[in-house]
Amino acid sequence: MRARRSVALALTGLLAAALAACSNGDTNNSTASSGGTAATVLNVGMPNGPQTENHNPFLGSSSGASLGYRWMIYEPLVMINGIKPQEPGKPWLATEWKWADNFTKLSLTIRDGVTFSDGKPMTAADVAYSFQLRKDNEGLNQDAIPYGTITQSGNKVDLTFTRSQFVNQNKILAVFVVPKHQWSTFKDPNQDTVKQPIGTGPYKLKSFTPQSTTLELRGEYWQELPKVKELRYTSYNDNNAQTTALANGASEWSFVFVPNVKTVFQNKDPENHKVWAPANLGIHGLWINTTRKPFDNPALRRAMDKVINRDDIFQQAEAGYFYPKIESVTGIPTPAGESFIAPEFKDKLHAVDVDGAKAELAAAGFKLEGDTLKDPSGKPVTITLTDPAGWSDYITSLEIIKDNLSTIGIKASIDKANQDAWFKAFDEGDFDAGMHWTNGGATPYDIYQNIMDGKILKPVGKGGVSGNYGRFNSPEATKALDQYANATDDAARTAALNTLQKIMVEQMPIVPTGASNIGALYSTKNWVGWPDEQNQYAPAQPTQQNALQIVLSLKPAGA
């Protein structure tokens, strides 16, 4: 499973038989609907392959992040609804919060009566330490928050920032809290393996194997204890194994791409097998390495955009449900981002336009000779499209894009890469083009920042990037991002965002194809209370922070 597509973000179709340890899905999960006692166990699955034990909640590569169980142990200050990020958050470990001075100051009131799973009290000092830990360790400060001062007095924590945090306010409020008495003993919190996780959440670690992690309910918790007594997280080898487990009931909750989802999952138990895939303000698309000729020419990128068939990608690659197609030429998902689209682009939608693409290329000095496109220097235009072999929806997307590009004479080949090699290639800029995701947030800023920000631009060959994988270099875009982030009024923000949309349309650093979703496949046979279209209290994805909110809302079916 791709972390950012469940992120992260994020972050699907990643990684054929199910693992032997995964076959006990319903063994100890008696159900009221079949006349037995109420269910006590919830089986969660992800198609991420064997895991290495590490419960470090900061590391996106840890088993806790990969399977999602870190959120059952570590809790946020404020619970933000990932599909309605502009709504006020729900008080969690913080009961109150107040921003001041154009989002450069934040005052938090910390909840009393909360204990960690080792029985020690959680205090405002732990909260202040959790922020200080991020400030002092760049690797833990994944959103590059510019922390200033961090002070604590009584149950209050006050923070300052060196610039406005309007665009990061939800990320800061959603920070999870770790115990100072444990984390202060670690030599390198960026890398240390956490074998005994201690958090304020309702669950604690019971057992771990590379295939399965089990959490058990704590004896006490600051909220009402959840009805789910035990959580069993299974990591299946691939999408097929995960899908089989969902179909036969061994797995009750997952985020996985399933081709023919109605046939292979929903129709197996129409009453109980549910799919809900709400979109957020994040996108998927064809990232183009803008440092490689002739793809450094925006006319070529615009022409590629004009011939890519998003309907085919949605229906064939995304099974008609998973990543809704991007309609707006700005790349902003609708309807979620409708209100942000600039007036000049309100009615401009993506449509296949081969003739328009050819005219675009001809005006830029490209020549179509027979079925071969030649760049202004006379060299045939070829491109290698790459994604990991197991990411079936992305690979199908690439097959469609390959055919689409042939209509304007671009010869494309597909590299079904080793996953680790692919991550390294994208990280270091060693690729032509490939499907990838962007960050998401409360506004389209996060999308554009992830694609175009010069502040995270690194030269080809240098890894450790947090975005701008296509190495897009636009001082104008970087300036507009700064203006948006530091604006003191809505008018200035709107003007900056309109500039970013214009750059996106004219420069096309990536070709957007679909909107991200933060959904899930789940079963109501044993558990009810899931979020859905009628009750959108949280995104359904089990690797999101809101997963804790969902588990707290579940009740045994028929109880």
Automatic annotation (TrEMBL):
Q: What Gene Ontology molecular-function terms does this entry list? A: peptide transmembrane transporter activity
- What GO cellular component entries does it have? ATP-binding cassette (ABC) transporter complex; periplasmic space
- Write the signal peptide boundaries: 1-20
Its domain of life?
Bacteria
One biological process term in Gene Ontology: peptide transport
Q: Which Gene3D superfamilies match?
A: Dipeptide-binding Protein, Domain 1, Dipeptide-binding Protein, Domain 3, Periplasmic binding protein-like II
Q: Which residues cross the membrane?
A: none
Query: Any keyword Transmembrane?
Result: no
Q: Which PROSITE patterns match?
A: PROKAR_LIPOPROTEIN
Q: Where is the Solute-binding protein family domain?
A: 90-448
Keywords assigned by UniProt?
Answer: Signal, Transport
Q: Which PANTHER family match?
A: OLIGOPEPTIDE-BINDING PROTEIN APPA, PERIPLASMIC BINDING COMPONENT OF ABC TRANSPORTER
The entry assigns this protein to a family as follows: Belongs to the bacterial solute-binding protein 5 family.
Give the protein name, as stated in the record: Extracellular solute-binding protein family 5
Native source organism of the sequence: Kribbella flavida (strain DSM 17836 / JCM 10339 / NBRC 14399)
